[in-house]
Amino acid sequence: MDTLPATDIEAAAELEALAAQIARHNALYHTEDSPEISDAAYDALVRRNAAIEAAFPHLVRADSPSKLVGAAPAGHLAKVPHARAMMSLDNAFSDEDVIEFVLRVRRFLSLGEGDRVALTAEPKIDGLSCSLRYENRRLVLAATRGDGQVGENVTANALTIADIPTELPADAPDVFEVRGEVYMAKDDFLALNARLLAEAEDSGKEARQFANPRNAAAGSLRQKDASVTAARPLRFLAHGWGETSALPGDSQFAVMKAIARWGFPVHPLFVECVQVEPALAQYRKIEKLRADLPFDIDGVVYKVDRLDWQERLGSVGRAPRWAIAHKFPAERAETTLRDIDIQVGRTGKLTPVARLEPVTVGGVVVTNATLHNADEIERLGVRPGDRVVLQRAGDVIPQIVENLTRDVERPAFVFPTHCPICQSEATREEGEVDVRCTGGLICPAQRLERLKHFVSRGALDIEGLGEKTIVEFLELGWISEPADIFRLSQHRDALLGREGWKEKSVDNLLAAIEAKRAPDAARLLFGLGIRHIGSITARDLMKRLETLPALATLADEIIALRASITPALGEPEAKFHARRDKAIAEHIGIENVGAAVGHALADFFHEPHNRAVWDDLLAEVTPPPFVVEARDSEVSGKTVVFTGSLETLSRDEAKAQAESLGARVSGSVSAKTDLIVAGPGAGSKLKKAADLGIRVIDEAAWNAIVTAAR
Q1: Which of 47-51, 222-226, 255-259, 429-433 has maximum average pLDDT?
Q2: Which of 105, 146, 512, 584 is the most buried (most CB within 10 A)?
Q3: Beta partners for 244?
Q4: Positions of E strands within 362-495
Q5: What radius of gyration do the chain's Cα atoms show?
Q6: How far apart are CA 589 and CA 27, in angstroms?
Q7: HSE (CB half, 13 Å, CA atoms) of 161?
Q8: Tens digit of pLDDT for each residue in 518-537?
Q9: Do the Cβ atoms of 71 and 147 come closer than 8 Å?
Q10: Which of the residues are catalytic?
Q11: Helices 595-606 and 8-26, interaxial angle, to 10°?
Q12: Which residues in 15-48 are b (16+ Cβ under 10 Å) and which e?
């Protein structure tokens, strides 16, 4: 898996596979508190994803792990939006990664040689992220991270945790959100499992046993009944803050010390480091103490100490640019591969899953691991019965890294040539690593998964349409495509006559469906499950196009463009594909939305059945024009090009500023360009701007635009 893909097609296919695998295990970890795999493979997959994205930046997906945070909140707790998003962290796995992080900070901020980047360093506790909101110094809301934008209201449960103050002292700001981790100490975890086992033996019921302290803490905090939480030994450790009306300091270290003075536990190993070398020394110190700490940790978090620099650095995708998690080395264990199952996903991809003899790796009992694809099975040479080595790095997904029994005489595993669900032919397109079922919507696995995806929390979020209900409606023949969901009211009387359905539950379901007649356009687009269009790419497309009919128009334009570009005489196939893909990406004209997305749109709308599904759905729903939340400014909705040398800020910072003002940033000048910000050394782009009559300003004028929008 170290060799990068050779072509765009191979890279796009592997990125899709990685996104699906990581999303599934994120949901198991963050939403269901029941991970199937371990830390080692999760970080390995994330690193693989990052490496491919770095080599193929035009193929970065909307649902890339580099852009998403956590998973959607569970359904049994009330949802609550975060006033300020709860971010995730990028990872470092070596000293060199940390040094490069600091260098990136220096480049972004355009720092001089004499400017030192001071950091804070603290243990990265393996708990459940929680935000505590205080208004007028009283705790009014506690919420889990959820998907970073929306979490779960756990206020009643948090009030039972002794480490969490119900009031702040008089010198605290009027509004302050303290953020940290709810966790369970190792000894308390063992005692809890022992108590649950004893209670089960007394009652004659099967005992619930938590896999690790993190699962125990998450399950305990997210109870419906706060009295259950109160009976569990939960703790809280602060590591940051969210929305505030004022800050009690001008550095990370100073604010955290103030939070500690207010009564919140802050780890004693939280220190301020004047530069990167002392921070790395603190990492090694914490690593040596790891086994003796009362709670599980999986690394050390570094943060840029100066808050004014943090504000300038901002974030990219799911993670702040001013912080990084330095993970501890991977943990490994041996086990036996019992079997290899083939799962069929909503896009038809056949994914091999290793069923393992249960083994504990880094505190997590692992029973399954992904084998990615047929090529990975062949590379490892694994067969049922083999002894294998599992690696765990990160917090979720395990990976088989070695086969210990290659010399045993057993036949090799034969990857299926037909779908195990519908028996349609399973094929692998030229240049792709994945085998896919050709059955489409006739394949029950794909039909069910596509409908589940359409109503999922990240898409239309229709309450009451869970897997069991969708299966029931599929079997009845009431639904087969998304638009059918909005016609379920026609079956109200028949549904009332079915077991388990009462008038209230039926009316609640139909009301939840009716409430989605005017859905968010980006969510609906994501819900259709078009290849390469995840939640962020869907938002990027709708930011530019605003309406869904415009998307179909764009697809038709790409279809016509593809037909118009033909190979030149003697032109190598790879060169032709690169030339065609460049033209498609330029026609789309959206940052980070490349040719793979264009091909996916064209392929989807070129298929008459898909066009019929699209038209049928838009006859049932009316999404309003997509509105982007951004600071109002004179460049909102416009396309900006930066050229030449910028003297007061880096190119990355300028781009981030423009996007925060609702502008689009392009690297080339065209008739679609509205404004050019030119610094010293600007060349041919200025001449083209003059020819096109495009407004040109200098860096000082740009800074004035940014300042006026604050």
Answers
A1: 255-259
A2: 146
A3: 176
A4: 364-370, 387-392, 398-403, 426-427, 436-437
A5: 27
A6: 33
A7: 28
A8: 999 999 999 988 878 888 78
A9: yes
A10: 124
A11: 90
A12: bbbbbbbbbbbbbbbbbebebbbbbbbbbbbbbb
